[in-house]
Structure formats: structure tokens, C-alpha cells
Amino acid sequence: MTDLADDLDAKLQQPRLWRSDGWTARVIKNEDDDGWAVAMTKEGEPEPALVGPWTMGRDKKNPKPLDGPAFSTLVKTASEFVRRNEQHLHATLHQSINVTCGSARVTVLLDIVPDDDNPYATLSAQDEAGEQLAQWRVAPSFKLNRASASAWADGGYLKPR
Question: What share of the chain is helix, strand, coil (3-state, %, to 5)?
């Protein structure tokens, strides 16, 4: 008898379902029209990372079967989509801007913690050597831009050494 984890790790290659390389491709009926779609789900994730149109077969009724080259292209596309989403999320949650405070160059950083119950953000500043000059807790909706960073720095919250 095989272990369930071994079954999930095993490659699966069926006309409408492929599993390999940590991804599952499932051809599904497109509920919006008469066509078909393919859902790409990363192993361990509850929802598909990407859903897109899928080609009709020769009979114009059923979907074209999945094959190796198509699956490889789908994995590459879904992986890139996930990577871009992760990069966007990181850029949204971790922002920085350089400003001049007195005669010193200061980097102001905003780090947002998107907690479901108690989201918050930390606004901090570093000198050119990377040493922390100040840190304050702010609302997660704080907008970091050159004007807000300069106002914060010039408002006496920073005392560059």
C-alpha cells in the first residue's frame, strides 16, 4: 500500500489532469461560456494561482488533452505569475525613500504588517551606514512619499547623528 504523500508526489498525466514539478494543471469547464479553461494550482495551495482559457479539441466540443510541452508552458507561466504577485506584495509592504535631513542623507522605511486582527506599520529611518536613527509605529494606511518622509524627518522625529 502506498502512502498518500507518495501518491501526491507522483507524476500524474491524464488528458485533463497533470501533476508534476509541484504543480497541478486541471482542465475545467468554463462556466462563463461553452469553452474550457485550465487551472494551475501550486502544491499545498487551496486555490489555483492562475486560471486561463484552454483550447478546444478537433471536435470543437471537448478540450484538447494536456501534453508535456503545454504543461511545461503552463508551469512556467503560472510560476512567473506567482513570482510577480509576490514581488508586488513585497514592494507594497516594504517601501523606502531617501531624503536629506539637515546635511545628512537618510533612508526612511515603511514596513507594513498585514495582520488580519491588528494590522500596523513601522516607520523607521537609517543613516548612510545603515544605523537606525528612529522608529515609530504608524497606521498601515500611512502613505510614504518624498513629502511625507521629508515632513517626518524635518518635523523633529529624526535627529541625525
Answer: 25, 35, 35
Q: How confident is the model at residue 37 (pLDDT cuts 50, 70, 90)?
A: very high
Buried (b) or exposed (e) across 101-126, using 16+ Cβ within 10 A?
beeeebbbbbebeeeeeeeebebbbb
- Which of 32, 30, 7, 11 lies closest to 20 in space, CA to CA? 11
CB neighbours of 111 closer than 8 A, spacing ≥ 6?
93, 94, 121, 122, 124
Query: Which residue type occupies 142?
Result: F
Does this model's pTM top 0.85? no
Express each pLDDT in 83-133 by its tens digit.
Answer: 999 999 999 999 999 998 888 889 999 999 998 899 999 999 999 999 998
Number of CB atoms found within 10 A of residue 17's CB: 13
The proportion of the chain whose per-residue pLDDT surpasses 90, expressed as a percent, equals 66
Residue 56 DSSP class: B
CA distance 108 to 94: 11
Helix (H, G, I), strand (E, B) or coil at 158: coil
